[in-house]
Write a structure and sequence with these properties.
Pfam family, one: Glycos_transf_2
Shape: globular
Family: Belongs to the glycosyltransferase 2 family.
Bound molecules: guanosine-5'-diphosphate, magnesium ion
Helix content: 40-55%
Number of strands: 9
Keywords: Glycosyltransferase, Magnesium, Transferase
Protein name: Glycosyltransferase involved in cell wall biosynthesis
Oligomer: single chain
Number of domains: 2
Cofactor: Mg(2+)
Length: 228
Amino acid sequence: MSEATPSQPSAYGVAVIIPAFNEESTIVDVVRPALAFTREVVVVSDGSTDGTARVAREAGAIVVELHSNGGKGPALYAGLLATNADIVILLDADLVGLTPEHLHTLLAPVANGELDMAIGVFNDGGFMTDFGNRMTKHLSGQRAVRREWLLGVPRLASERWPEPAITYALKNDRVKWGYVELHKLKQVMKEEKRGLWQGLKYRTKMYKDLLTFRKRRKERCSNQEAHE
Ligand SMILES: Nc1nc2c(ncn2[C@@H]2O[C@H](COP(=O)(O)OP(=O)(O)O)[C@@H](O)[C@H]2O)c(=O)[nH]1
Ligand SMILES: [Mg+2]
């Protein structure tokens, strides 16, 4: 019999999946604490033009490289296919202050069956990122979930930003989800990564994609009906 308790990764197959696009400067500080928690850490880069894939590989991650940039959704899906783990922990590649304890916090309620998906919310990481994360908790990139369920989320692989598709499936499937607090964790904001104007432009495009999810889903459903 295994000595492991439910919140230790050795009791389950647990993999960490990190979609990363041009995150050379932060990816190592996400991969290292993830590797201290579980041996299977998968970074998915699709067309990054910087050293993201190389530095992630050097840090010990399994790196999946896709040739052209398709977005976080297809990258996440490719990461799910690259592992057989029962539970996956999803992390963004631009986190600052990540520790194995954060991974434990995300995993524990899923591993012990309390939740089907745990969603991490920043707390005490810094005013701006705490505020942004709290206003849009349902868009958080930090999650733990059963891999099999996530693989079945409709449109996961075709949405540039997968979170609305996940939220829709969470509500539709009536699965149990809840928020857990991730202390002293923050992310590098887009405006810092890309410069003010490029960052704002990218942010605007992201919110446009996120806000039009329902419209696109409805259009797709009515197109399907019209073809039946
Ligand atoms: N592979 C891949 N990852 C992406 C892509 N777009 C965003 N990401 C990753 O998804 C995470 C969240 O993206 P980010 O731009 O930081 O959005 P924000 O956290 O909502 O501001 C980060 O790890 C990004 O590197 C993409 O096109 N491909
Ligand atoms: Mg980010």
